[in-house]
Structures are given as structure tokens and as C-alpha cells.
Amino acid sequence: MAIPKHDEIRVPALNLLNKNQTLKLRGFLEPLALHFNLSDAEINEEYTSGNGQIFYDRISWALSYLNMAGLVEKPKRGTYKLSKKGLSLLKSPEKIDDYINNKLQKREPSKLQKKDTHSQINFETSNSELTPLEELYSSVKNIQKSVYLEIINTILTKTPIAFERLVILLLQRMGYGGELKDAGFVTQASNDGGIDGIIKEDVLGFGRIHIQAKRYKTENGIGREEIQKFVGALAVAQSNKGVFITTSYYTKGAIEYAKNLNGTTNVVLIDGKQLAKYIYDYGLGMQIEQTIKIKKLDSEFWDSFKDEK
């Protein structure tokens, strides 16, 4: 039997969790291999790139999607448990894939700004109209999108104060505050005057960037009123530079208000999608999984050889 795709593993994985209270990732390998009647060669088969075992990796992807859709919980690191919703959907397993796709679309940070038609990643299919290089780039974008979503979902499991610390670290990683020691700091939890964090741009602290950080669920947008309050807080702080960062999205009214502020006050809005991209691009809390080298012909080298007439 061929190695099952990650979406084919979902229901059997849920059934395993229904029989066992909790399982670690490795605990799925043997029973799922028996379920799919895989040979030792298929179980141990690796990607041609050498980047791990295919079956084990697909189990990991299946559990990742189940977790992001709320059908599986992680009571502690590396351990999986069936959620109440997962138990309920097991009564109608044919509905699970559609449920996961719809759930992930709703959790997409930019869902109300731009409809995204990609509901799942399929690394096994290709578009014959694309060149091999374009197919690679397409796969990279799909992987990045999955990681972006994982970043936001991870942030949502942390406390609001932890999120404030995170955005300070991110802006410093992006170069704000320069080489100044303790350039960025989170304000006190209470009576912060609408300012969650501050980054000093110079040694004496004359230049400051004030930050507002909202750890909202991705379906809860930030409206114009909240941006107006932040602008008011900037005025009280006698600051003309503000960054409003959220895990969610901004309404059209909020975006237009920020764009139309007079020149004395500048407010930059960073939504969940852009936040995840910055975290990914600047490598904050990220690890490089694999580096791929793509080579092309050296035209000067080959042109030095005589052509056949």
C-alpha cells in the first residue's frame, strides 16, 4: 500500500486518540502503520532531500491540522489529546475534512480583507503549467503560509503581557532602538495610559516609538475607535510615532483613519498576517529547517566549448 497522504491520516489518528487518553507523536507511528498495512520499507522511506521520513512527517502534518482546527488538544508539549469537538465529529467522519478546511479559513488573519482560496497544503500535486522552479516557489509559499498560521495560533496561547514583550523583541530585531542597551521595554500592566511598550531611538531618549499591542482572536477586528484612542494616548505622551500591532485584522475604517492622520502624527498598523511574516522573515523564535541550493548553467563556461555544426 502506498504511504497515505496527511489528510488520509486524520480520521485514523482521531480514532487512536479516542482509544488512548493521550499520545505522543511517536506513539502514532506503529499503530497507524498497522492500520495502513505499511511495510518496513514504506515506514522508513525518506524524502529524496534526506529531510526525514515521509510517513512520520505526514503524521506530524495531520496532527498539526487537527490541532489548528481544534479537534485535537496539546495538554503539554509533544502530547496530543482528543478534544470534545473532535469526539463529536468522529460520529460523522466524512465531515472532518470540510470542517478543518472551513475552520482554517476562518482563522486566517486577513480573511476579511482578502479572500484566500487555499484551504490546505498539498505537496504531492503540481500544476503542469508551472515550471519546476515555479512549482518550488509555490511550495515554499504554501509552507510559509502554514507556518504563519502556526505563529499566530501559538501567540494566541500566550498571555497579553507575553505578547507585549514579543512585539518589543520583534521591533528591536527589525533594527529599531539600534545598539542601545535596554532600548525597548513594556510599560506597567495597569495605568499604562494606552501605551503597552516604548522603544528609545537615541541614548538620551528624545526619540521614542510608542506601541499598542492587541492579542485578539483572528476573527475579532480592530476598528477606528481603538486607533483613535491610541492616537489620543500618543498626544498625552507627546509622541508623534506609534505602532499598533495585532494578531487580528483592521477594519476599513481603521485603516483609512490611520492613513489620513495629519503629518504631525504617524501611526503604523501591523495586522496578524504582516506580524507573522515579520516574525518569520526576521527569524524571531524560528529555526532553519532546511536550505535548498538551486543551480543553473554557467553560460560563460558552456559557451567556451565549441558548438557542433
Care to describe what's here?
- By secondary structure, this protein is α/β, with parallel strands linked by helices.
- It has 12 helices and 8 strands.
- The radius of gyration is 24 Å and the shape is globular.
- The chain starts with 5 loop residues before the first helix and ends in a 6-residue tail after the last helix.
What's this, in brief?
With 309 residues, this protein is of the alpha/beta class. It contains twelve helices and eight strands.
CATH topology of the largest domain: Trna Endonuclease, Chain: A, domain 1
What would CATH call the architecture of the largest domain? 3-Layer(aba) Sandwich
Order of helices and strands: HEHHHEEHHHHEEEHEHEHH
Arithmetic mean of pLDDT: 83
Instruction: Identify the quaternary structure here.
Output: single chain
Rg over CA atoms, rounded to whole Å, is 24 Å
Q: What structural class do you assign from the helix and strand content?
A: alpha/beta
For the record, the CATH class of the largest domain is Alpha Beta
Query: What is the overall silhouette?
Result: globular
How much helicity do the residues have?
A: 40-55%
State the distance separating the first and last CA atoms.
51 Å
Count of distinct strands: 8
